[in-house]
């Protein structure tokens, strides 16, 4: 479903659901959908309608019939989980042009009962570009605290993972080589 019309609609429903609650109007999102229908041709509308029904059949969204020919669409917990999963899959870490000389280090000790969570978390940080310093100690040269907070929560290992910054590292030359980094900012 990645990058499909159904996923775009699901994300839109998720956003509109939040807007509807904030605006205190259950028809706010429907006006948006009606506006889309007028702008698009019949073929696009059919794709939209098919995708909406697909989301309903799969349990990602619920279509609720309302009076006056309006339909109310609400995202389900399963749909929210899909959006979060896709967002995790597309998560990337920032790389600054000039390294600030600080290392972002994470250490974790995940209990055996959460072995699957640990393995998934480890694979994701490896995919994002962290290097393994020791078995449960990983490093990255750029700011990534916000992204790590998201990952820790998603994989259910918040209490098991610690994040810190280091300015001086004994093996820094080795670490710099792994990331193709030159000198620290301010070094001569």
Describe this structure in words.
With 188 residues, this protein is an alpha+beta fold. It has two domains: 5-88, Arc Repressor Mutant, subunit A (Orthogonal Bundle); 94-178, 2-Layer Sandwich (Alpha-Beta Plaits). The chain has helices spanning 5-23, 28-39, 42-58, 77-89, 115-128, 145-154, 172-178; strands at 61-65, 71-75, 103-108, 131-134, 137-140, 161-166. The strands form two sheets. A four-stranded antiparallel sheet has the order 4-5-3-6, covered by helices on one side. A two-stranded antiparallel ribbon has the order 1-2. The protein is elongated and about 70 Å long. The protein starts with a helix and ends in a 10-residue tail after the last helix.
Topology (SSEs and partners):
Elements: H1 5-23, H2 28-39, H3 42-58, E1 61-65, E2 71-75, H4 77-89, E3 103-108, H5 115-128, E4 131-134, E5 137-140, H6 145-154, E6 161-166, H7 172-178
Antiparallel strand pairs: 1-2, 3-5, 3-6, 4-5
Shape: elongated
Architecture of the largest domain, CATH level 2? 2-Layer Sandwich
Q: Give the spatial strand order of the biggest sheet.
A: 4-5-3-6
- Main sheet, how many strands, which sense, barrel? 4 strands, antiparallel
Radius of gyration: 22 Å
Short overview:
This protein is of the alpha+beta class and 188 residues long. The protein folds into 2 domains: 84 residues, Arc Repressor Mutant, subunit A; 85 residues, Alpha-Beta Plaits (2-Layer Sandwich).
